[in-house]
Write a structure and sequence with these properties.
Elements: E1 19-22, E2 27-30, H1 45-61, E3 65-68, H2 112-124, E4 131-135, H3 141-148, E5 156-158, H4 170-180, E6 188-192, H5 201-204, H6 211-223, E7 227-229, H7 251-256, H8 292-296, H9 299-303, H10 309-321, H11 324-328, E8 330-333, E9 340-347, E10 350-357, E11 363-366, H12 369-372, E12 374-375, E13 384-386, E14 389-392, E15 397-401
Parallel strand pairs: 3-4, 4-5, 5-6, 6-7
Antiparallel strand pairs: 1-2, 8-9, 9-10, 10-15, 11-14, 12-15, 13-14
Helix pairs in contact: 1-2, 6-10
């Protein structure tokens, strides 16, 4: 290290060094993200105590729990060792950013993180019915899930397993779920197809002209063991909004534009009514513009159409609420044709089989009553039995009771 240089080679997720010089102190401070967001030094016991007291304040106020942003970033290596270069760059979506070229061995995911999460879990356990949901970063997210969830850590966590995918099929979803495991000491995964950090799945997966494809994938995730994060606008089938550079406010997008157009396309206001200014979101000009494709998919417009994405999503989630096995049951995958995701959920005496055709082609599956069971109705998906076969239409689904 040269005199006057940053302490090491650590990089900020949002570009440049993760060290910023503070002239009044004559020191560098660490920021894993924006320089306006200095990292807390969790190695300091007083910092941990102060954070826990803030959490206690909100628990006393009655919050249901906390969503922990990038919860592997709290601690760094005490000796400030350099990060080595990545053997294989992480995340093809982020190759515009030098951050992907480092192995983040020393700036994040330190063992001390788990000790602090245990302290936070112990605090939340003092209050009935509270939950901790953690966000795990992209690299090695499945291994982190095992480490960070469990009886004395987070109840559930989500990673970037599906959020960053630009193609998604049944085998990918099954492989991801199997890698996460479902042992008695493992926490619950939180399945997410969309969130505020990634382009909306309708556009990311190329499904603008196939709303049924996006819907059946989302519905499949809600039926898997775990929880589901339903991101605002997913129930409307919103595509990613096209935001011109002059309207971008995401500092990440502005830093790396045009190689990366930022995250604002997934952060635009919710369209409530196409006939109102700003689609009914606000009377004043909102933070981000309302785009015309979103206006046409507004809630008011979709509520009048029985087959709209909104109404189908509502119908299915209301139906699912009455099926305990889909909410609480264990899960066992079925060996079914390619591009069909199949599994059973079992809770108490209720067994439910679930088959989802994630392809654009009709699929024929030999009928096995012991596996598929008797059809359940009311969920809004069509499938038929013909000549001893289950016929799943493109982007169709089957639900059967097998007990």
């Amino acid at each position: 290290m040269h005199l006057g240089a940053p302490p090491n080679n650590w990089l900020s997720v949002f570009g440049g060094s993760s060290w910023q010089w503070e002239p009044r102190r004559g020191q560098y401070y660490l920021h894993n993200f924006l320089r306006e967001q200095p990292d807390l030094n969790y190695h300091c016991e007083e910092v941990q105590e102060a954070v826990l007291e803030v959490c206690r304040f909100w628990l006393e106020m009655g919050v249901d729990g906390f969503r922990l942003d990038v919860c592997a970033f709290y601690f760094h290596d005490r000796s400030l060792k350099d990060n080595p270069p990545a053997e294989a760059p992480h995340g093809s979506h982020f190759m515009f950013n030098p951050y992907s070229l480092q192995e983040h061995r020393n700036d994040i995911a330190q063992p001390e993180n788990l000790h602090f999460l245990r302290r936070l879990r112990a605090l939340s356990n003092e209050y009935e019915g509270r939950a901790l949901l953690g966000e795990l970063h992209q690299s090695d997210g499945e291994a982190l899930h095992h480490a960070y969830t469990g009886p004395d850590r987070l109840q559930l966590a989500y990673g970037y397993w599906l959020l960053g995918a630009d193609t998604l099929n049944a085998s990918t979803i099954r492989r991801t779920a199997e890698n996460l495991r479902f042992g008695p000491n493992d926490g619950w995964p939180c399945w997410a197809l969309d969130n505020h950090d990634f382009h909306r799945s309708v556009s990311r997966l190329g499904l603008e002209e196939r709303p049924d494809a996006a819907l059946v994938t989302l519905i499949a995730l809600t039926c898997m063991r775990g929880a589901t994060c339903l991101y605002q606008g997913s129930e409307l089938g919103l595509p990613n909004a096209d935001i011109p550079y002059e309207d971008l406010v995401d500092p990440y997008g502005r830093e790396f534009y045009p190689s990366f157009i930022g995250r604002d396309g997934a952060r635009t206001p919710m369209p409530w009514d196409a006939d109102k200014p700003h689609a009914g979101f606000s009377q004043a000009k909102p933070w981000l513009p309302m785009t015309e494709p979103h206006r046409q998919l507004s809630i008011r417009q979709q509520e009048t159409l029985p087959g709209s994405t909104l109404n189908r999503t509502r119908r299915f989630l209301n139906w699912r609420q009455g099926i305990p096995a889909l909410r609480l049951g264990g899960m066992h995958f079925l060996d079914v044709p390619t591009n069909v995701l199949g599994f059973t959920r079992k809770h108490d005496s209720q067994d439910v089989s679930c088959l989802f055709n994630l392809s654009a082609c009709e699929v024929h599956i030999p009928l096995d009553g012991a596996v598929l069971g008797q059809p359940l109705h009311g969920h809004g998906f069509a499938a038929v039995v013909e000549n001893g076969e289950l016929v799943l239409p493109a982007h169709g689904a089957w639900f059967g009771a097998t007990n």
